[in-house]
Amino acid sequence: MGDFRDWLLTDSTDSVILKHVAAGITPEMAAAVCKLMRNQDLILVAKKCQVITTFRDTIGLPGRLSVRLQPNHPTDDACGIAASILDGLLYGSGDAVIGINPASDSLSAMRDLYYLVDEIIQRYDIPTQSCILTHVTNQIQLIEKNIPVDLVFQSIAGTEKANKHFGIDLSLLHEARSAALSLNRGTVGNNVMYFETGQGSALSADANFGIDQQTCEARAYAVARHFSPLLTNTVVGFIGPEYLYDGKQLIRAGLEDHFCGKLLGVPLGCDVCYTNHAEIDQDDVDTLMTLLAAAGVTFIMGVPRADDIMLNYQSTSFYDALYLRKVMGLDVAPEFEQWLKRVNIMNDQGKIQPVEPAHPLLQGIPEHLLNFKTPNEKA
Amino acid sequence: MRKLDKPILRRDPWQQLKRFTRARIALGRAGSSLPTKELLDFTLSHAMARDAVHLALNVAALARELEGQEFSIQLVHSKAPDRMSYLLRPDYGRQLNKQSRRQLQAIKPVIPSGAVNLVIVVGDGLSSLAIERHAKPLLIEIKKNIPEQWKLDPVVIASQARVALADEIGELLAADIVAILIGERPGLRSPDSLSIYMTYAPKVGCSDADRNCISNICSEGLSYDTAANKLLWLAKEAIRRKLSGVALKDEGSMQEIAIIDQHRKLL
């Protein structure tokens, strides 16, 4: 295993070779070697791994960092979600996906959200994709009703028992992928899956069989790569301090996850996040997202002020993405970049610029949004 | 200081969208970064949430206040001796320590035939602030609305408690129904939100699927009387149908259940 580490660090082991061997690396090998590596090794090797995927834009090119725009609302209110989407777009976020965690389990509520995001994407001709993070069976049902579903989401884990706990198995994921492909909604490519993972998910479901968190997590990436996802997201600090207690553990876990995912050929992004009962704060988030950007992380989250009002946890913000772009010299996905320039959110030098009130995105806000009156205002 | 020609902060021209969401949008920018006012607001909210997690519940004061309202009180402690082990070992928070177990075993509850034994546990959970602010008024509402033939004592105050601790307490006290009032994991906006988890025929080993939850009880959320009435409605239905949990969803609690499911589903 030590020799494997040495080989990974060798200059002659470049992007082409790593891509070539990725399918032959088992998750157990990735997890084992990552435990021998220092943080800098995890960054150096991950940076050499290139995983490029496509749907309506191209994700994962070198020198690029994408953002999932996460416009959640505690009651799935369409106006509330639309407001957060516009806020994110006007700050240059959303090239990875516009992905909503719905509060409700109701199919009709989710259908409305798909139409809402689809309308925004169509109206402004945005090269990005939508996703509603609900159970895969709900999404299959909606696809069968011909609802505009771009990416199919599912939480996945690294053991069969833990996946059963999520109510899935591999054949169900196959079915979901086929359903999404049948809609043929990609323009640049056909990576139709979006997965989420996180250390501790197997353990918390009593389904880890004595295996350590990191090996279980790497095994989840092995599940992911089987379905050629557009994006895979390790939600690194969500599950709580009993799994990742403090900033040091969070940072290490984030770097290990990213390394293992990339080594296995998975387009790994990271929800750098925490809950308020962990020994973690926004400074730790800054540190980890900066290290991940140095390691070439595929995408991070963009949440208004990093403060998710539906899931009640803290993540990263539109501002954070702009910080990383400035400091690390990272661009958005090329198709999305062209769009941002076309609509004057980005200037010719590639900087996100403040917009005027007359901006088309603001002028184009549907009348019913602007003229909406709350019950109090009506009274 | 000399006046600057240009303002440092750029205001976002979509202020009108703020009315649609509590999400912090249209905050403007300093360069491309978060303005100081918002940064400080965030930091203050986080500090309050951290305090809610780490400040110990003043158990003696709460017991005195509740005894003043004619509740009889038992004080118990989970197996987690302190906050750090509580956070690191959720399993400790789900079991009584030896002394507390013996203490409850020694109580031989007398339940008149036909009476329903509703045991209420007040647990600090992840927000002592929630309990400090809301437990007493909520208990008063419950007592006010409880059917006459139901038994509601003792009320058990549990330190370093997780939800499932109520199963063991309820089992030892021969509860028909146990309901735990517990401090929720504090959000940035709501450091003092309280939840009730109700279980029919509680015993060690009950799962989350056996419980019904009424969440978001706080000044900006559910009121005390609404929460108390929801609990009693669920409790009566549980007695009538001899079950609780996923099989006992009422219209009103669907939303809460969906949100809890969502928390689990993300991972």
Task: List strands and helices in order, with pairings.
The complex is a heterodimer of chains A (379) and B (267).
Chain A: H1 2-9, H2 15-21, H3 27-35, H4 39-48, E1 53-54, E2 58-59, E3 66-69, H5 78-90, E4 97-100, H6 107-123, E5 130-132, H7 136-144, E6 152-155, H8 160-165, H9 170-183, E7 193-197, H10 201-204, H11 213-225, E8 231-235, H12 247-263, E9 268-271, H13 282-294, E10 299-302, E11 307-308, E12 313-314, H14 318-328, H15 334-342, H16 360-363, H17 367-370, H18 375-378
Parallel strand pairs in A: 3-4, 3-10, 4-5, 6-7, 7-8, 8-9
Antiparallel strand pairs in A: 1-2, 11-12
Helix pairs in contact in A: 3-11, 3-12, 4-12, 7-9, 11-12, 12-13
Chain B: E1 9-10, E2 29-30, H1 36-54, H2 59-68, E3 73-77, H3 83-88, H4 90-93, H5 98-105, E4 118-123, H6 128-145, E5 155-159, H7 165-172, E6 177-183, E7 194-200, E8 211-217, H8 224-241, H9 254-265
Parallel strand pairs in B: 3-5, 4-5, 4-6
Antiparallel strand pairs in B: 1-2, 6-7, 7-8
Helix pairs in contact in B: 6-8
Shape of chain B: elongated
Compute the number of helices of chain A. 18
CATH superfamily membership of chain B: Ethanolamine ammonia-lyase light chain (EutC)
Mean pLDDT of chain A: 94
Task: Indicate the proportion of strand residues of chain B.
Answer: 15-25%
Low-confidence stretches of chain B: 251-267
In percent, how much strand structure appears in the residues of chain A?
Answer: 5-15%
Categorize the overall geometry of chain A. globular
CATH class of chain B: Alpha Beta
Largest interface: A-B, 71 and 48 residues
Biggest sheet: strand arrangement of chain A: 5-4-3-10
Please mark out the parts of chain A with pLDDT under 50 across 5 or more consecutive residues, or reply none.
Answer: 371-379
CATH third-tier fold name of chain A: TIM Barrel
- H/E element sequence of chain A: HHHHEEEHEHEHEHHEHHEHEHEEEHHHHH
What share of the residues of chain A lie within helices?
40-55%
Integer tally of domains of chain B: 1
Largest beta-sheet characterization of chain A: 4 strands, parallel
Strand sequence of the main sheet of chain B, in spatial order?
A: 3-5-4-6-7-8
CATH topology of chain B: Rossmann fold
Based on secondary structure, the structural category of chain A is alpha/beta
CATH architecture of chain B: 3-Layer(aba) Sandwich
